[in-house]
């Protein structure tokens, strides 16, 4: 969200909760900040209001109470006697100018939105980096947070009323872990006592430091803030009384502290099983897209995920082959589960086609697909090296029951696409019906006794050895279950050697012109070569340095 804000040509960016109310003093405070001579970041803690008897008229321009229009000043005066500070709450307002300097050093981690920590992390990193002038505008911005017990689980830091739900939240633990891994949060806690505070006394804005007893007038000058003490013209009784009240209020409400800092040392583990993830992610047709990945392919996994997200495909699942991939996926917010039956020692860089490691890994995929089919879900299995140009599910779903649609690995343009062992088990669609489940069970049992990958087991089981049950040029039938295997049109689902697409000067343009739905990055040996070919071709959607999807 923060990264995407940079795409807008605005003078000021504001990050806020949608369920808070901002009053006109917010705009006045922004006008003041806009006139500062330095790059800045301000924040304002919310004010909890248990009873908010006001509502907007039909034109949403004026506030009403008991059907009568009221002035903003009257509204603010009414709220002034009932609100309570909530400095530990997640519903902060954060704003910054579109300046030269970044908000902070380093990378903004992929925090889960609404699950705590990130607002305080961002402020802390901005303060620690020293790239911008950071100040607290809680006294000048009416950030009204309506009383709602359902929001309590989103509080960020320890206070006397933290709910029991939050204490056991894996989402909070995940964000806490990210806060510790990225940035300086693990070195020191969030301490806002020394942060400059913006107040408004006698109609004038003042920047005060509650710990060093000095203030500055409206005319902020770059780098001069830290040198001026209270000027004589501001030593009036009313001004000083206003400042004293502000400092007193701050001292009474600054008792927030970070939750247990040891969270980041714990093992992060999602509370979701495969079954619960299926229920959450499957689409309306009970279909999921499944991929399997080890740590050496984590970047390609993320590029694959980013591409699906770009296509607005959300019904995907990730099966991690090792704990490192699981942890990485959790911190990227992916729907991931750890397969306990996955072979060990498979995360090294040489786990590619032709190796013993590759043979063991491929057999994990068919076992998982069978398990998901038995749970009542259709599965589109896609390796992470399959680039998606468009969503292929509408076409794949058009194949009827008792049909398995799979990519062909045949590259010769003049030969049938269903020749022996030309079924690619890295991209296929299987329905959760009796014939498919029975046939997939045969594939899994055959692969368990084979010294090869699962791919020959697919063909030999479903199409017969040497293609004895082939039907025409693009099908075969498994006789025991009467399952039809349909080999997909290579112009729509080309493999890595078909038509030399990967060798084209502009791979993306060539594929789009041909009408490709996907393009498999196979028929190449070695992880590094595979990765280089995909990145160089432009079929890459992930920024490794920022760990974000490319815009």
TrEMBL record:
One of its GO terms (molecular function) is glycosyltransferase activity. It comes from the Eukaryota. Residues 313-533 form the Nucleotide-diphospho-sugar transferase domain. It holds the Pfam family Nucleotid_trans. InterPro entries: Nucl-diP-sugar_transferase, RAY1-like. PANTHER family: BETA-ARABINOFURANOSYLTRANSFERASE RAY1 (PTHR47483). This is Nucleotide-diphospho-sugar transferase domain-containing protein. It comes from Gossypium mustelinum. The lineage of its organism: Eukaryota, Viridiplantae, Streptophyta, Embryophyta, Tracheophyta.
